[in-house]
Write a structure and sequence with these properties.
The structure is a homodimer of 185-residue chains. Chain A is 73% helix and 0% strand. The longest helix of chain A is centred in the first third of the chain and has 26 residues. Chain A is mainly α and 185 residues long. Chains A and B meet through α6, α7, α8 and α9 of A and α6, α7, α8 and α9 of B. Chain B binds a DNA duplex (30 and 30 nucleotides) through α3.
DNA sequence: GATACTATACCGACTGGTCGGTATATCCTC
DNA sequence: GAGGATATACCGACCAGTCGGTATAGTATC
């Protein structure tokens, strides 16, 4: 009874628990029940809760990388504007896929030290993308605005509807892509 | 043996647990131990865990209101630019007081429905402050940039140091306060 | 019969919460 | 001002249930 999609379903269940009930209710029993599997079956795929958490983070990172690559391919490979790629990635990630980021909430709530590798990579990318740019401060503003919008939705304190979010992301992208405008912000 | 600061100490302990170990480790036993009180004593002040969580949120809201009022008073009461007040408030809130926002993480992780009143108020203020402005999209960008920066620190994925954060907040404030620039961003 | 997977039963630690009791300070009465 | 009543603040043992994790017996497929 090989079910290759089983891990996917488990991770889906874990995410939806985090989104719906909060990371404190992310328990092995709850995950098993939500995806109609026994606890033993769950443990077979993820031997520990830590494994489940790292699995959630890994999937988020995979998805992020996938989206980024898609954007780069679609862009052709002119001189890439990594800030613009970041912003488009976050636009893609919401609202359909923002649940993936529940992984962050889960890890931060259950085992914050698991964030370290993620943070380091995040840090490195941010540095590569922004610190080198002539207009660090203003690029940062665009970056954090996209992040802020994304987190708002993730933390379920979103105050803008889909249309407005789209509008804001589009404007962010426009600003990130036009170097002229950026300098004059 | 009246100790009026006892509730404060309990809330401090709760926050530091959330920051240090994650919201999943925010247990009544842990809080009691961290602030050197018995579990019974803790329960005396906060009869349920829900009461503790709402107490954390309430303190956050109080602090926010306090800072906002301070800013408004200091500003004189010319026509207030609420967006600028928001941004200055978040600048004040970090890095010294950002731990207060751990209340958000705790509630979102443990009992997300307790966020509803907070979200509504947040929503209302955002609407009052920004939706009416002629440049909604660009004001939103500044607002979410400040939020994004704040959440980054709260979620402990901060990628900028204090000096850079200051720099970014200052620039945000400058943009929020100069209406000319805002329109031309 | 090896591999991949599932179900069930169980364990000890920990969870939120209750409960009976203690110590101190304040107030009222005579 | 002695004696009692009341309220506040706190303690720590205890309870029923949940937690992550283990152990084991079983099933389906190759």
């Amino acid at each position: 009874m090989a079910r290759p999609s089983c891990k996917k379903q488990i991770l889906d269940a874990a995410e939806s628990i985090v989104i719906d009930s909060g990371a404190a209710h992310l328990t092995l029993d709850a995950v098993a029940e939500r995806c109609g599997i026994s606890k033993g079956g769950l443990i077979y795929h993820f031997p520990t809760k830590e494994a489940l958490l790292t699995g959630m983070i890994a999937r988020l990172e995979e998805k992020i990388e996938l989206i980024r690559e898609g954007i780069r391919r679609q862009d052709g490979d002119g001189m890439t504007n990594e800030l613009a790629v970041d912003i488009r990635m976050m636009r893609e990630l919401s609202p359909e896929d923002y649940r993936l980021s529940a992984a962050l909430l889960a890890v931060i709530a259950c085992q914050p030290d698991l964030m370290n590798p993620f943070r380091e990579q995040h840090h490195k990318r941010f540095w590569d993308d922004l610190i080198s740019s002539r207009s660090f401060t203003r690029s940062s503003i665009l970056f954090f605005a996209a992040m802020g919008l994304h987190f708002h939705q993730l933390l379920n304190i979103s105050i803008v509807d889909n249309e407005q979010r789209r509008e804001i992301f589009d404007e962010l992208l426009r600003l990130a892509e036009s170097k002229e405008n950026l300098r004059e912000v």
